[in-house]
Design a protein that fits this description.
The chain contains 13 helices and 15 strands. By secondary structure, it is an alpha/beta fold. Helix 7 packs parallel to helix 9. The chain has a single domain, classed as Alkaline Phosphatase, subunit A. A hairpin with a 5-residue loop joins strand 14 and strand 15.
Amino acid sequence: MSHTRRSFLRHAALGSAAASLTTRLRAQAAPTVTPKALARPPTRPNLLFLWTDQHRGDTVPWAGNAALKASEFFAPLGERSFIFHDAHITQPVCTPSRGSIMSGLWPHNHGAVNNNQRFRPGVRTLAEHLPSGYRTAYYGKWHLGDEHKAQRGFQDWRAIEDLYRKYYTNPADLAQFSHYHNHLLAHGFPPDDKSEDPKGPAVFSRTLAAALPERYTKVSFLADEAAAYLRERRDGQPFVLHVNSLEPHPPSYGPLNDLHDPNAMSGGPAFAQPLPEGASRLARRQFERTHTEGYKNHPIATPGDWRRIRANYYGLVSMVDRAYARVLRALEESGQADNTIIVYTSDHGDMCGDHCLMQKGNFYRGSVHVPLALHVPWLSRRRVDFRGPISTVDLVPTVLDLMGITPVVPLDGVSRAPSLRNPAQWRREDICIEWNDPEEESFSGRSRVTADGWKLNLYRDDTPELFDLNTDPGERVNLAGSSSQRDRLRRLTDDVRAWQQTHRDSLALRT
């Protein structure tokens, strides 16, 4: 047996064992540091867009997380970027949120409102707004249809997922496998999963992939491929490169499980606490499923169990930190760093034990709050902090503005580039979040996060939730029924309806 196969069996066994184990930031509207312009913008800037799947917003150094070991990529990037401390996604599940990050449209407008759906005709990605002359590449998880092939304005492609094969448009494409699949085969690892097609070829399960040594993980593979791509960009031709890793997505264990002490895990007011009284039907359904069906074979009965899972999760974030640091080094080696915008964010967060929940799919902060950093070297090389809600629907128009490109079609998001050029223009604004339920429309809803620290959740067929995030950051006390909040409830409800009218959103909400 080869060394790699022995390593695989050993680490797969360890992975199985691991699987069986188990103040809200609010301040003044203006940023805390005024940037200094360092150079003229390049005529055709590059874009390096780094993101992940399921990275909650408080697990980065710039959020003040001292327990997290993330000094190679996240800490240096944070010290030279525009930091948005209160960034929210458009819908707390993969495909709809990814669709917004790629298109600048709300989920109900780009059309991919549930997982494994495609954009409506006429919807464009950022790459499809670019003028001729750009090299474009997408490396990593896509989750917007036909995972295996280049599309939507991207010329170069590296796929890492084989679990969405049944959604391929052309059945003949089932003969193709992801670049990551072929990478593991080349290193002697045997695929293990035939659950989708018992008579067909096996693929590599996420359980197996998570148990591999660090050098064979998905994020490490992507970092190597992205670094090679960047080193080839020395000719100065402008490029756009998206890199999207699966990690820190479940199964919530990996090769760095022991990097963080579970007893040192920081937890907020909702960590390892049960659902609050009067929680939404949406949250109650998720809680019941988690505690009836279990979570990925992890024990979840005690606070210690939740701390163990969170320590594993921190290890996955640290693994991303190590991998993406190699990408930044390659950018420096290419000689293009001064001409390149760098973005880091995620498609959604992870409850990670808050309210004794895991994953996403609700309006709680752990699920909808993500990291967001933009490095624009000709505007600033120092950290500039922005506080107040911002939505990732604004990323496409902001980046296009910074690149000097006018969108080909109208977008729902708005450019925040004026505030990056002149931080005195930054103003806090309310933002909205959607939930378009894939199983039952009555669970669908809309959430409003306000500039002054309140959150209203309205549902298709449920009573409202109103939280004062200033005094209740754990979202444990629903004030929607309080007589003292009737005016606020009415006013915010009107704001949600006005937002729906502006953005052509027809979901009927119960108030």
